[in-house]
Design goal:
The complex is a heterodimer of chains A (115) and B (114). Chain A is mainly beta and 115 residues long. Helices cover 0% and strands 48% of the residues of chain A. Chain A has one domain (5-9, 17-97): Sandwich (Immunoglobulin-like). Chain B is an all-beta fold and 114 residues long. Chain B has one domain (4-113): Immunoglobulins (Immunoglobulin-like, Sandwich). Classes of the chains: A mainly beta (115), B mainly beta (114). At the A-B interface, strand 5 and strand 9 of A face strand 5, strand 6, strand 10 and strand 11 of B.
Amino acid sequence: EAGVAQSPRYKIIEKRQSVAFWCNPISGHATLYWYQQILGQGPKLLIQFQNNGVVDDSQLPKDRFSAERLKGVDSTLKIQPAKLEDSAVYLCASSPRGLGIYEQYFGPGTRLTVT
Amino acid sequence: AQSVSQHNHHVILSEAASLELGCNYSYGGTVNLFWYVQYPGQHLQLLLKYFSGDPLVKGIKGFEAEFIKSKFSFNLRKPSVQWSDTAEYFCAVNEGNQGGKLIFGQGTELSVKP
């Protein structure tokens, strides 16, 4: 079974530029998450999708971050404009069941450096 | 707000030493508890989980964790570590009525000397 795919793996941009990350979850997984992991910290949930609907985006900085999951499969996370403090690893995870108890499978992450 | 604390930022052990990594959380209701591991250059993967039942849970690679509700703790243990256990370990909590959202601790880096 293929795992969660993410691209790009690394990205370097200047502040005020925009950037987009892509995630392809495990086939059949209904729930998809985006986490932000700043160096020295644990991952922090940005947004959770159930199929193509948003379940939780309470910690997403909506003035600059946006995410979508068209057709309930792939997802993109965008930052526009980027700030220095956005430098982090952005992790995508998926889960085989809906709301409730389940395990999350993580992708390799995209390391973003904002200069 | 819910929070998860991992007591040790960096632990250094020699091979065959015993390991215990602390994890405490702040939520007083029903919780689901997890330990994730990230080996160098690899992605996060599940080590073990607790949903209900026996508070002593066993995971992969000889790891186990004990849920002590009265102490809001879910400490990770291994009786004898190996060099290959060198990794970063994250405790995570899911509030039982909040869907799948995981709240992670800050992580503990484990270095095992051969």
